[in-house]
Design a protein that fits this description.
By secondary structure, the chain is of the alpha+beta class. The protein has a domain of 32 residues. Helices cover 20% and strands 44% of the residues. It has one helix and three strands; from the N terminus they run βαββ. It has a three-stranded antiparallel beta sheet with strand order 1-3-2, covered by helices on one side. The protein is elongated, with a radius of gyration of 14 Å.
């Protein structure tokens, strides 16, 4: 993976956000973005489906450059 740049010297713009996908789909997008030189942030969130049942949804944010560390 590509290293994160210094947050004080980098301004990035979101190119696209992909939401509510499986981990396989998310990793495919991350790999493709990396090959093309885009920056990526991968996030996950749990969503309650029923009592005591949760699903995990993944969000991929693609940036024009490597985003600064949060």
């Amino acid at each position: 993976m590509t290293a994160v740049q210094d947050p004080e010297t980098t301004e990035t713009a979101v190119v696209r956000t992909y939401e509510a996908m499986s981990i396989d789909e998310a990793l495919e997008l991350v790999r493709a973005a990396e090959r093309l030189g885009f920056g990526v942030i991968l996030r996950n969130a749990e969503r309650a489906e029923e009592e005591d049942t949760y699903s995990v949804e993944w969000t991929v944010e693609v940036f024009d450059e490597i985003p600064a560390a949060e």
